[in-house]
Each structure stands twice: as structure tokens, then as C-alpha cells.
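Private note to self, pasted from the team thread so I don't lose it. C-alpha cells:
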């Protein structure tokens, strides 16, 4: 596989780190974005450099279009044209709708859904010029099945696949594929920090495979979708949830 430039938003999180490692194994040049409030960027880069990974990192407020545009322009000038975009950044602000504040609704929609447009639009022209590109949008099983207390998150994640299908149609004749990955419960810090009794009695029994997914499994799927072997896959929503929700 030829070396390509991969931009992963939220690349310093649990799933993001797994994707960094897998795309690095596939011999790609890795660029990540991180929240401008993140004070650990230098330490994170140093840790990965000691592991033999030369990664570029750029602060970006993914909820702000102008900030994303400036970030992508800087990446293009300093690293090169983005070939593969993984829209992975996201947050949760859980509460029932009756208790949810408008600010928490708005923040999740802006960070989880608006960000997909904000990061995708600035990279499109470069992909179109090459007539090759991969856009991979990370959604969630809860975008299809819903989840108590996550109306904002589920709405954002459902909206991601609507964006995927529409953009896939627009890009289909230009060598650019657009796909969604919808993971289930993964062994990331957010999930494993649940109270053990909740995890053991309320989460795992719902999953036919009776285990959490590994971030590395999702990352392996992303690397395949980004490959030339996956050129005939576009507009798809690829479930990776242990059977929690079957289409």
C-alpha cells in the first residue's frame, strides 16, 4: 500500500490512539488534531516518538468551521494534502431530555456532528484534485438504537450517517469514498470507568459476544476501508458492536 497522509480528529483518545497505531503499521503519515485546551500534546508526541512514531499534531476546535479551515490549510502547507480523513472527535453530555440543558444539547451537536462537516469540507478539493480519497466517519451503535439519556449524542451520531450517504453520492464519480463506522461498547476509559456492577449486569448481557470491543478491532476496520481493496465500498454504515444491534 502506498504511503498516504491520514488525518485523525480526536487522535489522542482511546480509539484515536488505536487508529494512530494501525495506520502507522500500514506505513502511512499520521496527523492528529487535539482540543486547543489539551495541555498534554507535547508529552503525547514524545511518548509516540519513543515508540518510533513520528506524528504531527495540530490543535483544532472541531466545533468551529473557521478554526478547522485554518487547521487544514496549515496541515496542507506543512505536511501535505490529506488523503484519508477519519472524523473521530466526539464528546458526551448525558442527561434525560427533561434534565438536559440547551447548552449541553448544543455542545454535543456542534462537537460530534458539525465537526464532520467542518473537517471534511476543507479536505475535499485536495482529494478531488488527486481523484482519490477516503473519508471515514465514526458514529455509534446508539445512533441506530438510541440510548436513555443520550438524545443529543444519538441524534448527532444518527446525523453522521445521513451526511455520509449524501456525500458518498456526490463523490462517487471522483474516486473518493465516504463511509461510516458504528462501534458498540469498546474497552476505552469512558466505558471501563463504569461501575463494575453496571458493566457486568447491564451492558455485557446485552452483547451476544459477551465482551467489550477492542479499539484495535475498530482501527483495523478503518485501515481496511481506507485501503485500495475497499474501493467498492461507499455510503456504507459498518457495524462493529458484537451483535448488540443487528441490521
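Design output:
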Amino acid at each position: 500500500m502506498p504511503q498516504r497522509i491520514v488525518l485523525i480528529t480526536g487522535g489522542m483518545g482511546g480509539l484515536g490512539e488505536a487508529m494512530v497505531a494501525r495506520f502507522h503499521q500500514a506505513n502511512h503519515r499520521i496527523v492528529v488534531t487535539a482540543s486547543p485546551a489539551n495541555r498534554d500534546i507535547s508529552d503525547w508526541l514524545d511518548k509516540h516518538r519513543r515508540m518510533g512514531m513520528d506524528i504531527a499534531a495540530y490543535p483544532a476546535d472541531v466545533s468551529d468551521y473557521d478554526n478547522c479551515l485554518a487547521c487544514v490549510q496549515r496541515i496542507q502547507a506543512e505536511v501535505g494534502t490529506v488523503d484519508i480523513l477519519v472524523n473521530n472527535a466526539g464528546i458526551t453530555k448525558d442527561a434525560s431530555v427533561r434534565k438536559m440543558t440547551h447548552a449541553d444539547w448544543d455542545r454535543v451537536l456542534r462537537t460530534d456532528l458539525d465537526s464532520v462537516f467542518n473537517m471534511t469540507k476543507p479536505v475535499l478539493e485536495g482529494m478531488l484534485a488527486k481523484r482519490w480519497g477516503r473519508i471515514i466517519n465514526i458514529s455509534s451503535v446508539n445512533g441506530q438504537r438510541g440510548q436513555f439519556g443520550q438524545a443529543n449524542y444519538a441524534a448527532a451520531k444518527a446525523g453522521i450517517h445521513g451526511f455520509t450517504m449524501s456525500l458518498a453520492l456526490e463523490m462517487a464519480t471522483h474516486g473518493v469514498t465516504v463511509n461510516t463506522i458504528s462501534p458498540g461498547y469498546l474497552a476505552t476509559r469512558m466505558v471501563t470507568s463504569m461501575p463494575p456492577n453496571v458493566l457486568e449486569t447491564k451492558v455485557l448481557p446485552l452483547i451476544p459476544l459477551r465482551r467489550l470491543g477492542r479499539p484495535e478491532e475498530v482501527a483495523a476496520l478503518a485501515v481496511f476501508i481506507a485501503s485500495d481493496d475497499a474501493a467498492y465500498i461507499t455510503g456504507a454504515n459498518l457495524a462493529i458492536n458484537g451483535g448488540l444491534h443487528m441490521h
